[in-house]
Amino acid sequence: MNLPKEYISYSQIRLYQTCPKKYYYTYFQEIKPPITDKIFLGTLFHSTVEYYLKEKISGKEPGKEDLLKRFEEQFQEWQKKQEITWDKPASETLKRGLAFLRYFLREIAPEINPLMVEKELVVDLPDLDVKLKGIIDLVETDFSITDFKTTTAKWSKTRIRESYLQMQIYRYIFEKSFGDVITHLRFRIIYAKGISGIKDQKVSIKASDLETPKMLDIIRYVVDSIRGGAFYKNENYTCSYCEFRDLCRKETK
Ligand code: SF4
What is the pLDDT of residue 126? Predict the structure, then answer.
C-alpha cells in the first residue's frame, strides 16, 4: 500500500514505533479523537513563540503584555474549535500557559538570535523512494538548532536518548539543504506541574550521539512496514491512556 502522505516525518515514525495500530487510526482512517489539555497547551505555546520570533526577525518584537493578551485570546478561540480532554480546569491550564510564556520571555527569549523559525524542509531519500520532512522550531544566526518542548517534568536520560532520532532527522535535512554548517543541536524543555516553580532544561545533543546509517535503517523499517500493511496492536501499559482505546478494544484482531 502507499504511504498516507507524500512524505515520512519524525512524528509519523514515532507514532508508528509507539503503536502501528494507532498510526493506522491516525493517518489512514484520519480519526481525530479529542486532544489532551497538555497537547493543546503545547501547540498554543509553540504558535505564540513562533509568532514572537518571526516578529523579532522582522524588527517588530512584540511587548510582553501584547503577547500575553494574544496568547489568552487564542486560548479562548482555539478551545472552541476542537474537542479537548481537560485533566485540569481550562482556567488553570490557561494560567499555566501564561506562566510558561512569562518564563520564556524572561529567561530564554533575550538570548535568542533567530535566523529561521518553524522552517519546513523536505529532502529526498532516493534509496527508500520517499521524501523526509521536518519542521525545525528555531535556527539561530550561529547555525544552532533548537527544538522547544513544554512538559510537566524534567526529561530523564531515557527520554533524552529517545529524542536522538528527531535531532538526527533535523540535522540530516538541514545539512542536505544548506551544507555542513550546524554548530549546536539542542532541546529546550520548559517544565512545571502547575503555575509555579517553572524551570527549563537545556539538552545538548552531540554529533557523536547521532548515526545517519542507523537513522536510515529506522526510516526504512517504518516505511517498509507501512507499505506492507503491518498495523498490529502494540498492547502495553500506555493503552490505558490511549485516545483510541475504546475503538481498539472493540476490534478483535
Ligand atoms: S489502545 Fe493500545 S494497542 Fe490500541 S491503538 Fe492504543 S496503544 Fe495501540
Answer: 86
Task: Verify whether ligand 1 is closer than 6 Å to residue 116 (CB atom).
Answer: no
The number of the ligand 1 atom at minimal distance from the alpha carbon of 243 is 6
CA-based R_g, the chain, Å: 19
**For position 177, what pLDDT does the model report?**
96
CATH architecture of 15-226+233-248: Alpha-Beta Complex (3.90)
The pLDDT assigned to 96 comes to: 95
In terms of DSSP bridges, do strands 114-125 and 130-140 run parallel, antiparallel, or are they unpaired?
antiparallel
Average pLDDT, consecutive stretches of 10 residues, N- to C-terminus, the chain (253 residues): 95 96 97 92 96 96 95 96 91 96 96 96 94 97 96 94 93 94 94 92 84 93 97 94 91 69
Contact 19, 233 (CB under 8 A): yes
Tell me, using a 6 A CB cutoff, whether residue 188 lines ligand 1: no
Q: Where are the beta strands (DSSP E) in the chain?
A: 7-9, 35-36, 84-85, 114-125, 130-140, 144-151, 184-191, 199-204
Domain locations in the chain as residue ranges: 15-226+233-248
Q: Give yes or no for a contact between 185 and 209, defined as CB atoms under 8 angstroms apart.
A: no
